[in-house]
Amino acid sequence: MSATPVAPLPDGVDPAWLPPSALRALGARRVRVSGEGPLVATVRGEVAAATAEHGGSLVTEGPVDLALVCAPGDPDGEAFVVRRDGTTTSVTATGGAGLLHGLHHVVRLGEAAFSGRWEPRRHAPRRAIRMLDHWDNVDVHPVMGQVERGYAGGSIFYADGAVRADLGRVAAYARLLGSIGINRVCLNNVNVHRTEARLLTDLLPDVVRLAGVFRPQGVRVHLSVSFAAPMTLGGLPTTDPLDRGVQEWWASTTAAVYAAIPDFGGYVVKADSEGQPGPFASGRDHADGANLLARALAPFGGTVFWRAFVYDHRQDWRDRSTDRARAAHDHFTPLDGGFDENVVLQVKFGPVDFQVREPVSPVVAAMPRTRLAVEFQVTQEYTGQQKHVCYLVPQWSEVLGFRPHGDGDAVAEIAHGVVAVSNVGDDPFWTGHPLAQANLFGFGRLAWDDRLAPEAVLDEWIGLTFADPAVRAPLHEVMDGSWLTYERCTAPLGVGFMVRPGHHYGPDVDGYEYTQWGTYHFADRDGVGVDRTRATGTGFTGQYPAPWRDLYESVRTCPDELLLFFHHVPYGHVLRSGTTVIQHVYDTHFAGHEEVARTARTWGALRGRVPDRTFDRVTELLAEQLRCATEWRDQVNTYFWRKSGVPDERGRRIW
Ligand code: GCU
Description:
By secondary structure, this protein is an alpha/beta fold. The chain has three domains: 20-123, 2-Layer Sandwich (Chitobiase, domain 2); 129-459, Glycosidases (TIM Barrel); 488-530 and 568-644, Alpha-glucuronidase, C-terminal domain (Alpha-d-glucuronidase, C-terminal Domain). It is built from 21 helices and 20 strands. It has an eight-stranded parallel β-barrel. It has a six-stranded mixed sheet with strand order 2-1-3-5-4-6. Strands 8-9 form a two-stranded antiparallel ribbon. α2 (38-54) runs parallel beside α3, α16 (472-479) runs antiparallel to α20 (581-604) and α17 (482-489) crosses α20 (581-604). The structure holds alpha-D-glucopyranuronic acid (GCU). Alpha-D-glucopyranuronic acid (GCU) binds at residues 148-149, 190-191, 270, 274, 309, 353, 381.
């Protein structure tokens, strides 16, 4: 009966939500693990380590407090059943992955797993695809650094131009992912540069090593590939998806990948997007492009994740007929029904780009014959870059719960997968901001079950991460509402951006106003917002089915928080909340700033209750967050006061 030892945490690295204390309840018990296979060995290793630490025992016979049983059945099964009779809690699963998920379920329950009596209850993930995309580069990119939009240091996978020799850190990471049910990881940036393209070919032996580290935690690896690879790596004269030579190149290259990594997950592709190559170069469409790769992967059970983030990134700001929000729907919905079965169209949750507030992408409701995955950003590109506290699970929960047809299925039921851009780097805390670990944890939990309440997910994270129960209430105060605080501090009423161009940190109200990127707010002396109505604007509202196409179309029914995404309105326009747009701008920016100041005070009281280095890092970052919130408040308020000439009705200081 084999046991795989738990990967030791490299020196100085934070244990995140799996410190030894998190496994105390389980580790103090008599536990039996039955079954065989690599993931059962992982479970046995966890139990052996926890019982050694906390005084329990891993036994093979006799009465036990906890029985973890992998019984014959579907070996790929991810579900598990828990029950408690008499004094024994038992978890049964038919696959090693299910047993691993069951183990961590017991860990999360803590002492509660060992009291009372409960009927058998089956737990299964709500969807099969639960994936993290790393935007890591092998080389350090001159503008984007090693991890594109990474705010936690360099890559944990690569150093000095190659996959790291020591993958100890990756093993600790894989364990964290296994504990939250993430089952797929993409290892490199969607913008595929020269060295990274070679992960598919001559650097493949290193990918094999990475796959070997993720496998014992039930996580399959994927690569982002360049659509131009047949030319750049294969020396062919074309990338045309209908060309026989191109098809053969992908087929043989993919066969070689599977020969080395039999459980390889597949490819992620950003094509014809922000300068990446794609099928348009040969006059083909995205279904031709995606199916080319899908057919190379199909014999091996692989999947191609084809991104729908396709828009004109060289727009003329004077051109009012082009609307970036429309682009994904315009490009992809005509292709519905044309994608092979093993294509997953990966759609950003909103129509623009991971803003703090956007409507749900209309693509989600418009492609019933295509498998879709919704993409989130755990990395906080537009939400404080892991310098600011911003617990994003409430945002994702809202998106997954949105019903595109009014009643009927929610996004969570329509989507086959949930994917997010990772926020992890080689920082000792993994995520730069220690509290950003909760976003990684929460993403996994919500991907598993979107019906979990964000506060309950946070509660699990707090309970596992911090040994002192007294931190629970103050941490909820700091984090529960932090997304809404972030929204109040930044661009108002869904209009988006207003960030510094390029790096996207800190305020710059007109930073993107006269650029090529299609992200404008159109503020003038009379009003602000983007007219996306059918009546007088870009017609974007027409991409939604009823009832949203009409609710968004009218200023009277459009939700306040999205008003400026859909409408250009005068500053004196009265919101559904009863206040005017201009007064809302002032009020929210003063309030957001005060909330950040209050957060800093609440956190300050936790000295001595959380590890010192966590305390110090968060304290330092909260000072930066307050500085930044001051800048946002003063720049946004001053900008709109100067534009509109309307004073704050409460006479507060505006510059
Ligand atoms: C954003 C981000 C880019 C990234 C892109 C994408 O625009 O700023 O760095 O490449 O999204 O999702 O592909």
